[in-house]
Design goal:
The chain is of the alpha+beta class. The chain has a six-stranded mixed sheet with strand order 8-10-7-11-9-12, with helices on both faces. Strands 3-6-4-5 form a four-stranded mixed sheet, covered by helices on one side. Bound molecules: adenosine-5'-diphosphate and magnesium ion (MG). The site of adenosine-5'-diphosphate (ADP) has 13 residues, from strand 4 and strand 5. Adenosine-5'-diphosphate binds next to strand 4 and strand 5.
């Protein structure tokens, strides 16, 4: 028998994620009731994943549950916030139990890992689309915005760049050595939100953003919001083995510079903090790499190993842009 809307919610989305003392009431009433901490800012963000745009309709539902939450947590990481609550608006063509079971497993497992509780949502029938909203806490002194970068600041990125973009190319038919395939695929389907890095660098970084649409475009947002420019040193970009091979074979830097979906952080910070940051880097479970400099002269210059600049920068993804 088909599952009713309420059975579906009760079966897959009640008690999802970590129990929290600041949640008086979660799924089941007209609203959730929450106790926000008195001295923190509440950081809130939402992201929608649409079938056929952000994921193929047949994608593994467990990874989709993970990724739908991960992309939201990545935005909290970029502000230096500690994740707390999530809501889920789920639109499905039909209530298929095996799909729901796997989707909720991926979602609720990542929620638990980060101490997040699913506190409510909405469930509707229609073309598949997943909207998650997350809320987190951050103190006003530590919060990182896009607008705080100053000339002279160093630019850092977490993790490695271009992996998810290469996984997309591989999915569309580009050959990859077998040994590199699964790691690359994981980076696209199971992104890791850099919550620990965001929290560790909040209060030190002058600006931050998460790299969802590619480094050039997302760093561009910091530059614009801060009224500054930058030089990026292309040979410093942190590359995993597969992307390094790709760049060596093709001399094409567009993956690490402009491919989306990596969900790493790009941060700027005063050179006075460099030693402190190198010490923090050792405590993180991802790389933290110096890749460039904030400068007074507006615009972004990508500097090649021979000192020459790219004359045409690859663009980042724009849902309403000419190329999409
Ligand atoms: P209402 O009609 O009052 O908006 P709903 O019938 O849509 O309430 O939802 C009933 C309860 O289940 C609410 O607490 C709502 O937050 C929760 N809920 C609905 N869909 C989901 C979902 N996909 N995930 C988590 N909670 C959900
Ligand atoms: Mg409703």
């Amino acid at each position: 028998m088909a599952l009713s809307e309420f059975d579906l919610i009760a079966k897959y989305f009640v008690a999802c994620g970590a129990p929290r003392a600041d949640v008086l009431l979660d799924v089941g009433d007209d609203c959730a009731l929450l106790h926000p901490p008195p001295k923190s800012l509440l950081a809130m963000t939402t992201d929608t994943l649409v079938a056929g745009v952000h994921f193929a309709p047949g994608v593994d539902p467990e990874s989709l549950g993970h990724k739908s939450l991960a992309v939201n947590l990545s935005d909290l990481a970029a502000m230096g916030a500690e994740p707390a609550w999530a809501t889920l608006a789920l639109t499905l063509p039909q209530a298929e139990e095996s799909w729901l079971e796997a989707f909720s497993r991926g979602l609720c497992q990542l929620a638990k890992t980060h101490g997040v509780r699913l506190i409510g949502g909405d469930t509707t029938r229609g073309p598949m689309s997943i909207t998650i909203q997350v809320a987190g806490f951050v103190s006003p002194e530590r919060v990182m915005r896009r607008s705080g970068a100053h000339p002279g600041d160093l630019i850092y990125v977490t993790g490695t760049l271009g992996d998810a973009g290469l996984a997309l190319l591989a999915r569309r038919g580009r050959h990859l050595p077998m040994a590199l395939r699964s790691g690359i695929r994981r980076r696209l389907d199971w992104p890791t939100p850099r919550i620990a890095a965001g929290k560790a660098l909040a209060g030190i970084a002058s600006a931050a953003i998460d790299i969802s649409d590619g480094l050039v475009g997302d760093l561009g947002h910091i530059l614009q919001a801060s009224g500054v420019g930058a030089s990026l040193f292309v040979d410093l970009l942190p590359l995993g083995e597969a992307v390094a091979d790709y760049v060596a074979a093709t001399d094409d830097w567009s993956l690490p510079l402009a491919a989306g979906d990596d969900y790493e952080l790009c941060l700027t910070l005063s050179a006075d903090h460099q030693e402190q940051v190198e010490a923090i880097a050792h405590t993180l479970d991802c790389r933290l790499t110096w890749v460039g400099l904030i400068e007074r002269a507006k615009g972004l210059r990508c500097v090649l190993p021979d000192g020459k600049h790219f004359d045409r920068l690859p663009n980042s993804y724009d849902h309403f842009g000419a190329g999409s």
